[in-house]
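seq/struct pair 1
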Amino acid sequence: MRRAAVAVAAGAMAVSLAACGSAKESGDNNDSAASSPKKGDDIKVGLLLPENETARYEKFDKPLIEKKVKELTSNKGEVVYANAKQDASLQSQQVDTMVTNKVDVLIVDAVDAAAIKNSVQKAKDAGIPVVAYDRLAQGPIDAYTSFDNETVGKTQGEALLKALGDKAKDGQIVMMNGSSTDPNAAQFKAGAHSVLDGKVKIGREYDTKEWKPANANANMEGAISALGKDKIVGVYSANDGMAGGIITALKAAGIGDIPVTGQDAELAGVQRIVTGEQYMSVYKPYPQEADVAAEMAVALAKGESLDSIAKDKVDSPTTKGVPSVLVPVVSLTKDNIKDTVIKDGIYTVNEICAGKYKAACDKIGLE
């Protein structure tokens, strides 16, 4: 995967999160590869993704991981897939099923990072290593890959301040954070606050249940009612899906031409950026993250060391020293669509500029 040319610096790659919990739960991560029997290419990888409302999981993550596992195993490896549809209890059952079916390794993007802990322990007890994907799951995980999540929030906050200019001094913004059950959401929020606090007044702030656009829409309607439509100069939205719900509420209230942030570079988000309805998104190079997850999973399934893959360590609330790879992110605006999602083959110009978006694409030179 070609890394996008305008990458935002990922910051320090070794991230430390507060480590706590009982002596049984905490402690240095033990490399399961040391005790796992050696296997060949004929491996079974369990892939558990959290939901299907956000376009990225079905469109990018799943096929990318499947492709890389095949590549790394001479087409002999199998990926067994399940999507939890934002249901933590269902995801727990899915882990149990995969443990029963004796997969060789699990890649888990947790619906609820804390609630998944017991399921991760079950897998560990069954001798199945676990790669935490995109979200830092609790429990005895063996590896972790994601993006530098505080940098994501900082990137969003910096873009919003740039778009606001002098309006930041007098107006108010609304902050629409992600779900409180997602540890990434807390890191996005912390990164954004580190940039926004003291620079602009935050009139209302929400943690959006389940990241749902409908919930973001309802929250935004509440913020408009409480603050008044003439007082809101911008919106921090933690992702593109919620940005869509927010923009719908803004339009209904007759509020236009204020900057709204996003994340994930969803096609709908990119199209809103083209038309000017959304100011920016954060492009996260999914091919790179997916490739790393597949490399980790295949190595662990084969009983191999992660030393050549993961050069850094991360502490979770329950496990210290988890071998980790954090991938840089990109601030995506209408000025660098060509150099990011098009250059990296995520979308074609024809996909972005289809139908009603063609005129807006022509206007910004996206042809």
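seq/struct pair 2
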Amino acid sequence: MSPLQVDELPKPSLTPVPIPAPPSVSAPTPTAPPPTTTRRRRLRWALSLLPLLLIGGYAAFDWPTVHDSAVRLAGADPWWLLAGTVFNVLCWVAASVTRQGALPERLPPGPLLASQFAAGAANHVLPAGLGAHAVTLRFLQNQGISIPRATASLALYSLVKPIVKTLLILAFLAAFPGTLRVGQLVPDASTLAVAGLGIACVLGAATLLVTAVRPLRRPLLGCLNSALTDARLLHTRPVRVLQLWGGAAAFPLLQACVLASVGSALGLQLPWVHVIFAYLAASAAVGAVPAPGGIGPVDAALVFTLVVFGAPMVLATGTVIGFRVITVWLPLLPGALVLSGMVRRKML
């Protein structure tokens, strides 16, 4: 057999083999947010606008008071009004210090002060301090505090305030025994009997509710246990004791200084000791009445106590109206805006 020639060998095919192209990577198409997220966003905006709507309705309902306040304060001394505004700003600082003193954990000072400023606006819309407590509760939850411990903190804060106010009244009576006219401020026997009966009914209803409704017993006992545990822990720390009791004492004194500053701006010829004691007595007597921010009952009691101490009715009424302008109406809109901003930023 003859060897094969090179030319006769089969030549390899040089046809290029097609290589499949890699799959094209396209940008992900944006998807619409789920309905739950959209509803939450709308609810957050509604909650942020709700304080403004409530304030607008409240101002429209109480417009004569707003108009009379502006007329009476038009001729007042602006420097004394500025001093009253400064005292009012210090009230929010005192409230923040007291809130911090009611918790062992350290809270951020700036957001805490902003929450108390926002709580002041909410407190003048809902009765019995519910607005301020609701805002503070949401703020504490946002800071990682559990609901039982946050509720216990609010209960301790609410308990310390009347105790401190009573101690301040006793201290004023001991320091100025001959200058304070308390004879007409002391309620008669029938009024004391009615008040005692009301307190007994409230305590009895609360006890009956706890013993009869079993689902409420466990959370209430847990809240009480948390409150007692935190109270014992707080009173082992001198800084927290000073913040809790010192802040609770500073708040009513600063509020009373606002009232005294407005009285000085209007020419009220009463010593500051009398005006401060009048505020302490009036707020302690009817401060528990469930009215938004105490407006109404406290105002009437303030006018009465100032008249008892010798103020003319016109000046006493003007002083209380100016006090409400500085403590309620001036910070109401900025406080509502801060509240709305904190809701939008998920700080509440």
